[in-house]
From TrEMBL:
<feature type="binding site">
    <location>
        <position position="166"/>
    </location>
    <ligand>
        <name>L-aspartate</name>
    </ligand>
</feature>
<comment type="pathway">
    <text>Pyrimidine metabolism; UMP biosynthesis via de novo pathway; (S)-dihydroorotate from bicarbonate: step 2/3.</text>
</comment>
<feature type="binding site">
    <location>
        <position position="56"/>
    </location>
    <ligand>
        <name>carbamoyl phosphate</name>
    </ligand>
</feature>
<comment type="similarity">
    <text>Belongs to the aspartate/ornithine carbamoyltransferase superfamily. ATCase family.</text>
</comment>
<feature type="binding site">
    <location>
        <position position="133"/>
    </location>
    <ligand>
        <name>carbamoyl phosphate</name>
    </ligand>
</feature>
<feature type="domain" description="Aspartate/ornithine carbamoyltransferase carbamoyl-P binding">
    <location>
        <begin position="3"/>
        <end position="145"/>
    </location>
</feature>
<feature type="binding site">
    <location>
        <position position="265"/>
    </location>
    <ligand>
        <name>carbamoyl phosphate</name>
    </ligand>
</feature>
<dbReference type="GO" id="GO:0005829">
    <property type="term" value="C:cytosol"/>
</dbReference>
<dbReference type="InterPro" id="IPR006130">
    <property type="entry name" value="Asp/Orn_carbamoylTrfase"/>
</dbReference>
<dbReference type="GO" id="GO:0016597">
    <property type="term" value="F:amino acid binding"/>
</dbReference>
<dbReference type="Pfam" id="PF02729">
    <property type="entry name" value="OTCace_N"/>
</dbReference>
<dbReference type="InterPro" id="IPR006132">
    <property type="entry name" value="Asp/Orn_carbamoyltranf_P-bd"/>
</dbReference>
<feature type="binding site">
    <location>
        <position position="264"/>
    </location>
    <ligand>
        <name>carbamoyl phosphate</name>
    </ligand>
</feature>
<dbReference type="GO" id="GO:0006520">
    <property type="term" value="P:amino acid metabolic process"/>
</dbReference>
<comment type="subunit">
    <text>Heterododecamer (2C3:3R2) of six catalytic PyrB chains organized as two trimers (C3), and six regulatory PyrI chains organized as three dimers (R2).</text>
</comment>
<dbReference type="Pfam" id="PF00185">
    <property type="entry name" value="OTCace"/>
</dbReference>
<feature type="domain" description="Aspartate/ornithine carbamoyltransferase Asp/Orn-binding">
    <location>
        <begin position="152"/>
        <end position="302"/>
    </location>
</feature>
Length: 306
């Protein structure tokens, strides 16, 4: 098993499948009346979050506690980071405390890779800048496999703001490793040329959502990350929704078995209509629940579980 999970590229097909299979076991155990396992008793997991987060931070905290690990939640706000302390000095502090695993979310792409140079424990990337979010890709893959029974050969459309999406990058890497066929869809301004070129061998690129839908098993809608946009990438929110939003009319173009995903948080009414988000085809709530099981599996395996 690998020591760190900094990128979906760290995972080969066998390791990714082991994590998904272990997550299925964790999910079965979570159905018990007493949900805690003694697997990581005596271990310390630090959640080091430099960006605001609800789902991911709570999910990792719940995962570590269900494995009986001691959990330290470290927020940049109200800490020495707000006084100018560097990532390296924070890492050395965590090292001195004996952290066995550090889960990091950071606005700078590559921060988990640097952190891994400074601590002896395992490092898990919970999102770095616009780079990657590997555990989100794992829980997405787990959800697809649970709903559709397989990953190999699935046709997955990832739609929207690919340019700023760390979720999209990790999903492309992981899903293609596991045999899925991925198409990224969006306006040309939100599908970066370097990404299109780099992924050309593994993925297809389309600027026409309506053309892709009838042949898709999975449609993953991405949030439009307006907070990362300094320029105008499309004429208006209404125009974006008209061209790339998933509403009921478009959902009817999907095959009957197809599912709709979204990593959250959603811009309801922009990239996804409320009635689509709340429909039986939507896996959005399942993705949140599955995230705990998948992160339990990651922590368990990284910290020496058999």
């Amino acid at each position: 098993m690998i020591k760190h999970l900094r990128s979906a590229a760290d995972l080969d097909a066998a390791t990714a499948t082991l994590i998904l299979d272990t997550a299925a076991e964790m999910a079965a155990l979570s159905g018990r009346e007493v949900k805690k396992l003694p697997a990581l008793r005596g271990r310390t997991v630090v959640n080091l979050f430099y960006e605001d987060s609800t789902r991911t931070r709570i999910s990792f905290e719940a995962a570590a506690k269900r494995l009986s690990a001691d959990v330290i939640n470290f927020s940049a706000k109200g800490s020495s980071v707000s006084k100018g302390e560097s990532l390296k000095d924070t890492a050395l502090t965590l090292q001195a405390m004996g952290a066995d695993a550090v889960v990091i979310r950071h606005p700078a792409s590559g921060a988990p890779h640097r952190l891994a140079e400074w601590v002896d424990g395992s490092v898990v990337n919970a999102g770095d800048g616009t780079h990657e979010h590997p555990t989100q890709a794992l829980l997405d893959a787990y959800t697809m496999r649970s709903r559709l029974g397989r990953l190999d050969g699935l046709k997955v459309a990832i739609v929207g703001d690919v340019l700023h999406s760390r979720v999209a990058r990790s999903n492309v890497l992981l899903l293609t490793t596991l045999g899925a066929q991925v198409t990224v869809v969006g306006p040309p301004t939100l599908i970066p040329l370097d990404t299109a070129a780099a992924l050309a061998e593994k993925t297809q690129v389309s600027y026409d959502l309506d053309a892709v839908l009838p042949d898709s098993d999975v449609v993953m809608m991405l949030r439009v990350q307006t907070e990362r946009m300094q320029d105008s990438y499309f004429p208006s929110a209404r125009e974006y929704s008209r061209r790339y939003g998933l509403d009921m009319r478009r959902m009817r173009r999907l095959p009957e078995h197809a599912i709709v995903m979204h990593p959250g948080p959603m811009n309801r009414g922009m990239e996804i209509a409320p009635e689509v988000a709340d429909s039986p085809r939507s896996t959005i709530v399942e993705q949140v629940a599955n995230g705990v099981s998948v992160r339990m599996a990651v922590l368990y395996l990284l910290l020496g579980g058999k």
